[in-house]
Amino acid sequence: MLKLDGITAFVSIAEEGSISAAARRLRLPKSVVSERLAGLEKSLGAVLLRRTTRKLTLTEDGATFLQRAARITSEIEAATSEIAERRGTLHGPLRISAPVTFGQLHLGPALYPFLAANPGIALTLDLDDRRVSAAAEGFDAILRNGPIDDSRLVVWKLAPSPRVLVAAARYLERAGTPKSLDQLDAHRGVFYTNRGVADWRFIDAQGEAVIVRGQVAFRANNGTMVLDATIAGLGIAILPTFIAGPAIKDGRLKIIELGAKPEPEWIYLAHAEGRQPSAKLRALADCLRKAFGDPPYWEI
Q: Which of 35, 122, 139, 270 is the most buried (most CB within 10 A)?
């Protein structure tokens, strides 16, 4: 007879990639998680995971079983949360993905009071700058800065995310300060890899969108690295004020005015289409909106 705790252990191992990570997620000893997986495989009469010294991989049977097992555990979690919500409490796991720099700088101060006020929520925060798939990777929601063009996601706006064109004084002294969009493309740029060199997007005086392609000096897939490279004088960058604000205020970076503004953006929380958002996810979104403010507290 199949046991739910075995199915939950298997899904957690498959999603986390290891028994150790699954044990941390489930808050159980590693030995218990291993025993539950072994019991499930014995009940099914099938090997679900192939073990090597370095990693675990799904067998063909494991991949087939995971598709439905993940839905089963998700539905049970949703049902458990719904019952808790009817009693006026927020309960159950919540898994969120967010960009590294924004998470480190701004999520903690907003999340910690929320979790302290709702001890029934077990939040897992995955900080990653790559474009993750909410549904395929098991996230309840993803938090992102900038445009989200995935039609499979339902997007909630949390806060405006103003961006500014900036450079260090040492770079401007060496290369000169551009005075117009026409002059900008001759300058060296520091770019966020996940957005590419077409990220220099502006709204001109006529309200038209304009893309400028600068000369690549440095690219990185992390906002803090882009900030540091710009402060070091490697080139010009467009940065959100939630990253660049302190460096602008203390003079390490200077705002470049061109008569056109960087295209406005938002901080979003998005969840998979077709999946009813839980009360705890809606409560988290409300909490983040209040914590960030409109205009956001990081605006300069």
A: 139
Q: Between the CA atoms of 60, 66, 68 and 73, what dihedral angle is there, to the nearest 10 degrees?
A: 170
| Coil vs helix vs strand at 68 | helix
Residues 6+ apart with CB under 8 A from 57: 49, 50
| The dihedral formed by the CA atoms of 128, 133, 134 and 138, expressed in degrees to the nearest 10 | -90
How much is the CA Rg of the chain, to the nearest whole Å? 23
Peptide bond before 295: cis, by omega within 30 degrees of 0? yes
Q: Sorting pLDDT into bands at 50, 70 and 90, what band is 278? A: confident
By three-state DSSP, how is residue 29 classified? coil
pLDDT tens by residue, 74-105: 777 777 666 666 665 788 888 899 999 999 99
The secondary structure of the chain in percent helix, strand, coil, rounded to multiples of 5, reads 40, 25, 35
33, 9 Cβ separation under 8 angstroms = yes
Tell me how far apart the terminal alpha carbons of the chain are, to the nearest angstrom: 61
Nearest Cα to Cα of residue 125 among 147, 140, 146, 105: 140
Nearest to 227 by CA among 143, 104, 144, 109: 104
Q: Using CB atoms within 10 A of its CB, is residue 235 exposed (0-12), middle (13-18) or buried (19+)?
A: buried
pTM attached to this predicted model? 0.72
Is residue 148 classed exposed, middle or buried when 0-12, 13-18 and 19+ CB atoms within 10 A define those classes? Answer: middle
Pair of tokens at residue 194 = 């996940």
